[in-house]
Design a protein that fits this description.
This protein has nine helices and eight strands. By secondary structure, it is α+β, with helices and mostly antiparallel strands. The strands form two sheets. It has a six-stranded mixed β-sheet, sandwiched between helices. A two-stranded antiparallel ribbon has the order 7-8. Strand 5 and strand 6 (191-195) form a beta hairpin. It starts with a helix and ends with a helix. It is globular. The protein has a domain at 19-78 and 104-228: tt1808, chain A (Alpha-Beta Complex), CATH 3.90.1570.
């Protein structure tokens, strides 16, 4: 890898979240990679403890369905009810069945289940920035989360890596930190792990039944950010400007100026490296 490419992948703000990467278009890419890298780290730790990992529909988009309840209902319906083949049924009436849509923006969550029984133990959610802006979506999600924790005894971990004036956590403390991890353990009060705007993301303990395992969050963010060359995408899109900075109301003038100055230094060094290589 050339020095220019390495610097490009590094981005203007190494060692912390790139605030421009919090925009939904870029964060969606990070979301998928973060889940993959987190599973890669957790898999050997959990397998040794009798658990398995999976990707399932996020509670943020599950339309009122907790993952374990949905699977139980699906299995029951297969035994007791006929399955509708909509395409075939419509065709028999000489009607257009339409095209099956693929949801390109589907959000997923990490699920931890007991080996053998398949019982859901923990759900790890990476919060979507868009889902924090719609009051109805926030309320639906909060109700689903509460049912999982209170009624079914499932741990829920929320990782919120985008600044916003709205949060999925009902707490003023969440408003005081740029990023946070909320941990919901049945029978305990929720815990909030706050993370500062200008600091690396914190590692944290993923709750299981009688144990926890560590997850090194910032290492996965850095790996995803570099692999996707997000800084290069943002630069090519003309995004590294003050007017394109997501959630500007959450930053003070000093923070905005620091970020813009860092972007300019990064650009200047990129130009020098490019000149040296030509």
């Amino acid at each position: 890898m050339s020095a220019h490419t390495d610097w490009l992948k590094r981005g203007p703000l190494p060692g912390r979240m790139d605030p421009w990467a919090e925009a939904p278009h870029y964060f969606q890419q990070l979301h998928a990679s973060l889940i993959g890298y987190a599973i890669e780290e957790l898999d050997p730790l959990l397998t040794a403890r009798g658990f398995r990992l999976g990707r399932e529909a996020s509670l943020q988009i599950a339309e009122g369905r907790e993952p374990d309840i949905f699977i139980q209902r699906m299995m029951h319906s297969q035994l007791t009810q006929p399955t509708l083949n909509y395409e075939l049924a419509a065709a028999e009436l000489l009607l257009d069945p339409g095209m099956m849509l693929q949801d390109e923006t589907e959000w997923q969550a990490i699920t931890i289940r007991a080996l053998g029984s398949g019982k859901l133990v923990t759900v790890i959610e990476f919060v979507s920035p868009g889902n924090k802006e719609r009051p109805s979506a926030v309320l639906d999600y909060q109700q689903r989360r509460e049912r999982l924790v209170v009624e079914q005894g499932v741990n829920v971990v929320e990782i919120d890596l985008t600044r916003s004036v709205k949060r999925l956590v009902r707490s003023e403390i969440a408003q005081q930190t740029a990023y946070h991890i909320a941990v919901y353990v049945p029978g305990e009060s929720p815990r909030l792990i706050g993370m500062a705007f200008d600091q690396p993301l914190k590692p944290f303990a993923v709750p299981l039944r009688q144990d926890v395992v560590p997850l090194t969050l910032h290492a996965h963010y850095e790996r995803a950010y570099r692999a996707l060359t997000l800084a290069g995408q943002i630069a090519d899109d003309g995004g590294y400007t003050e007017e394109h900075l997501p959630f500007p109301a959450t930053l003070n003038p000093e923070q905005r100026q620091h970020c813009l100055a860092a972007v300019q230094r990064w650009r200047d060094h990129l130009h020098r490296l490019s000149a040296d290589e030509t």
